[in-house]
Amino acid sequence: MNDTLVLMEGIDKRFPGVQALKGCQFNLQRGEVHALVGENGAGKSTLMKILAGIYQVDGGTITFKGEQVTIPNPHTAQTMGISMVHQELNLMSHLTAAQNIFIGREPTKSFLIDENTQNNKTKEIFELMNLNLDPTMRVSKMTVAKQQMVEIAKALSFNADVLIFDEPSGALTDVETAELFRIIRQLKAEGTGIIYITHRMEELKEISDRITVLRDGLYVNTVNTRETSINEIINMMVGRVIYESSPEIPEERSQEIVLEVKNLSRGNELKDVSFQLMKGEILGFAGLIGAGRTETARAIFGADPVDSGEVFINGKPVHIKRPSDAVAHDIAYLSEDRKRYGLCLSLDLKTNIVLPIYQKLSSVLGWVKDKRAYTISKNIVDQLSIRTPSLEQKAKNLSGGNQQKVVVGKWLAKDADILIFDEPTRGIDVGAKQEIYSLLNELAAQGKSIIMISSELPEIIRMSHRVIVMCEGRVTGNLDYSEATQENIMKFATMRNGGNAKKSAQPS
Ligand SMILES: Nc1ncnc2c1ncn2[C@@H]1O[C@H](COP(=O)(O)OP(=O)(O)OP(=O)(O)O)[C@@H](O)[C@H]1O
Ligand SMILES: [Mg+2]
User: Which residues face 166 on adjacent strands?
Assistant: First the structure.
């Protein structure tokens, strides 16, 4: 077993009120891709943060290249050759890509930071990654996907023996994920050991050699990917059978137009975007990265200005200049970037959930308000099975997927008429996804109108009553659910320079 890079045995880790890991084990060989899976809050990130020197164990041992070690801090881990791409984006948004990658170890020339060398080295890494990105671009100007690629570039720049990827594909599109897999295969061939955390079950067969499953902080099993099935893995993860909620398309669909968008335009990002949203409808928005889906949502919500175009709610023209105007019109928007727009990380769970309805609550007496806030947030926590020791837990102490559930929950509590969800199930485990799907179906059945932007085609196809497809800032397709196949959607998603928007498929 001299090819063993890492051996973790009997690992215990407690946080206040939570036993995150109980006697966990894990091992990594040279030249293998070892996937680590489990439900939200199972302990995946915690186990890997221990290996990366971010957390210290309460019990257990770590052996690295045959020697028992302690890893007191991330710097030591990096020097040993262990590098981690985090689930949450950790970049400094006011710095450039290159400055982020070399932070704390900048190349110098006569005691000054040598920006040129730094930029050139960054360029080299980007080229290896086939990434067309300017090293001097500020991170704040980048999409979430690009930021994720910079994080990956940073981890690669350490030339580590052990590379940990904590849900790297969550924020990436298919194209970027394929590129990441190419890099992973290359590193693997060079003998690097790779740990890969994901909630996308279909990726397991594609990239991993072995899979370790955690459940509730306990080690369940390690299996060879070739000798297992995805169903077997899911069973080990959740310990129960998952009921796949099927799309619930009502037979009689309402013709009542709740939201109408006409000729929304802004520079190159939005070109004459027009569509209608019906009462009780789930309208999927499909497209590749940069197609203009998030831009459309943000424009409707008043988060970004537009050059021209009109928005009608229930037939009346409205002028939404800022998000508070949208909220006043009973529109809710769940952003794709939960850290930037969705959560107050230092506030507790309960406060985060009731934040959008705080004004409504604040008109009631103090203790009644507290009690209502408690009941509302307790319901959401139960409905979405958010794993937390209490409603007073700070949002930053929740696992990544549980944070996402809080963001979804906060907008469910809002009780808005028009709900815009941008990548609602990103980072959410297979079981909880089904719960969110049933909730969306329920909301639609109650007469709420939902726009759902998603990069996961199976999700769009399963959930949508109708699908709007965008490409390069234009609406290129409008498909009824019966026509919304993978092939059809992809055809419209790649319809460059406009084509002829398909207008025929209005709901009938
Ligand atoms: N810094 C912290 N303080 C308190 N509790 C924490 C902290 N970090 C993690 N936890 C708790 O430890 C448990 C395991 O969390 P962890 O982040 O390892 O889960 P995970 O498997 O990575 O989940 P996800 O798929 O949602 O990312 C959770 O119950 C979480 O709330
Ligand atoms: Mg995690």
Answer: 197
